[in-house]
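Quick one before lunch.
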Amino acid sequence: MKTKISFAFLISFLFFSVIVIAQKSSLSYTVKMDNPEWHVYSVQLSCKGIQKEFIDFKMPVWTPGYYQKMDYAKNLERLKATDERGKELKWEKTTDNTWRIFSKNSNTVNLTYEIKTIRPFVATAYLDETRGYILPAAVFLYIDKMINHPVQVAVAPDKKWNRVATGLDSVAGKKFTYTAPDFDILYDSPLLVGNLEELPSFQVRGIRHRFIGYKLGDFNKEQFMVDLKKIVEAAVNVIGHIPYKNYTFIAIGPGPGGIEHLNNTTFGFNGSNFNNRESYIRTLHFLAHEYFHHYNVKRIRPVELGPFDYDKGNRTKMLWISEGLSVYYEYMVVRRAGISTDGELLNAFRGNMLAFENKPGKRYQTLEQASYETWSDGPFGRTTDEINKTISYYDKGPVVGLLFDFKIRQVTNNKRSLDDVMRFLYKEYYQKKKRGFTEEELRSAFENIAGTSLAEEFEYVTTTKELDYPKYFNYAGLKIDTATQVFLSPYVGFTVREREDSVFIAAVDYESPAWDSGIRRGQQVLEMDWQKATPKLCKTILSNMEIGKLIKMKIISTDTTAVYKNIIPVKKREKTFLIATIGDPSPLQKQILESWLKG
Ligand SMILES: [Zn+2]
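Model of the zinc ion complex:
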């Protein structure tokens, strides 16, 4: 009896499903850029088969990968809605990013609107006479509670332009037309439009990797692609599996920033900067970072980072994993690819140590807090004096990652490493459970691989405890100089910047003479040594200062009153964090260092 009912139910369910499929709804966009010099995209949406009294169309407030509220909705203008007969439909805004269209059960709703673009940046849409960068979260509306609806996008490039670069699948037979199975994929797939340059692609494990961009610059492109291929191979070797069908590096033009996606990355790029080794390695690190993110954060991810909440954003305490360990692996991958030297690798970590250790934020904010607060603090910490109460997970994250890696290698006799933790998270949570991991699951993954408690190391994540570098570096036969060095040159610990003939404090070192006398970033300097402060005077006084000889400054403090400050130059004291190998490593120390460097 029970079986019979279920069977009947199953039959009626299948029948019902067929009906639903037969009346499938569709969403298709067309993006036009007829007058690119106006910096405006004209967008048309044809929405069919969603018969409702009203439909709520929404614009995301952020784009995944850039953990900041961007308020894209404010750039939408001239919205017009019509039904299948061309009759105009009424609409109203119900929230800052929701447009309610009173569609009155019409089978077709056509929307037209414009997206005003202002700034060329990886997390904003942009259009000018030279190229268009369509950041989908800033251009395409989704229907409330229908984020999983398939969507088609047709691009009509300006007639001067010949190419579109995107990670989206093309529609066969239709030029510049793409599909996404849902809006998560659409929002993950920017489109770059213009006269683009494509470098010869390469294959890794039989999968094609492309590099396409606007204004790539003048550099040795052949060598660059050889190096990029080695980087992809080294990253793939960490996890051992490639999850995508193809991958595209999309260079959007000179400028900062990059965003990771499932099968592509979009980033600012200028190959003409490759004239010195340092900037070349820095760019390769940056590309390795964005590439490694297709594993770490897009697939190996904190449970909170999916499904995305396009209205509010998603907060997690684990960005130190997603961002911090992506910095860790950007260095490791470029080293293991045989491109950077041991010295360049150690120096990269040293740079993060100096940035983290020389800021007072290390006593205020933990790695977990920095992760969680990024939505309010900003991607690189708070601004003004509040910056002193924050840390950056881009600095402390990779350093703590390094301590974890050395510890795991040491307690397992170099049988396991941080790579095993990443592989486990990938297999267990991305491939098997198809979800993110919780904080408890993350910690068990680390401790199961290590085969012991890592309570001491997790305190580096959850507290502001001082990092014991020498102990961990010693596991790999390395020594690090954490002693305070005294330098002979006079030092006050602040720099100034000039704005319209006025002089302002640009930066103040923590616990420097300037800091101790109450000088803070952003304050205006009125006088130095009883004379009106000018950029020239400040430069002269600072370059002629002597140890022990007082400098008198009149500044405007935050409460707008002018006060005098006495600053006495001292000998500079600083930790160098210089790293070197020890003279007589044990076999285990030697083994750990070698396998860490080579992967
Ligand atoms: Zn990142």
